[in-house]
Amino acid sequence: AQRVTQPEKLLSVFKGAPVELKCNYSYSGSPELFWYVQYSRQRLQLLLRHISRESIKGFTADLNKGETSFHLKKPFAQEEDSAMYYCALTASGGSYIPTFGRGTSLIVHP
Amino acid sequence: EPEVTQTPSHQVTQMGQEVILRCVPISNHLYFYWYRQILGQKVEFLVSFYNNEISEKSEIFDDQFSVERPDGSNFTLKIRSTKLEDSAMYFCASTDSRGLFFGSGTQLSVL
User: Fold this and answer.
1) Do B42 and A96 touch (CB under 8 A)?
2) Between chains, do B45 and A97 touch, taking CB under 8 Å as contact?
3) Which of A23, A91, A95, B98 counts the highest number of beta carbons within 10 A?
């Protein structure tokens, strides 16, 4: 069975501070990992996926298979980054059904 | 950019009533999904749909739930006899290779 754990329900930082939203996963095979974001009163939207190895809105995430982690990082948080962030996992080669973590609410104070 | 659209945005119903939540996935996507999110809890998978049939469903998706693609564009979720615990935000999603694209959700309130 696959599981995604986001240990922090809430993360509160000041503008300009570094941010790291933690995500750990449990899956015996080779996973695909994603981060989704939900801004206030907006829909869930894909932020980034590990296989793209891209940086979106200054955020990056590296898949660490040894630690089974996919932490989301940004060196300098902005107020507009305040949102709910969900880590998700899909089993590669299987049915494309992402399993979501419970989410972390990021609040960036001015 | 194309979007997944959901209607209505809010639905209030009495316990025991049937509700139908509607979704229009992105036109060239082939996989469709329903997820729900109870207030304060995580996003939960309900069902996936491919090639005009259910491909997978969770234990939440019991006999009270059904999905249908009645025409080439709509994808509906029906709850036959709603219960209080069905109150949640219901998200429709469709996918291409880049990941899931979500609708803005339908907030279902069962009284």
Assistant:
1) no
2) yes
3) A23
Asked whether the predicted pLDDT for residue B108 surpasses 80, the reply is yes
Boundaries of every domain in chain B: 5-9+16-95
Written as one string, the DSSP assignment of A10-69 is EEEEETTS-EEE--EEE-SS-EEEEEEEE-TTS--EEEEEGGGT--BTTBEE--BTTTTB
Interface mutation target, options B38, B100, B101, chain A, most CBs of A under 10 Å: B100
The domain defined by B5-9+16-95 carries CATH number 3.30.200.20: no
The CATH number of A3-109 is 2.60.40.10
Residue among B11, B9, B6, B7 at smallest CA distance from B111: B11
Of A43, A49, A99, the CB nearest to B99: A49
**Where do we find the tokens 């019991």?**
B62
Each residue's pLDDT tens digit, B68-97: 998 878 999 999 999 999 999 999 999 876
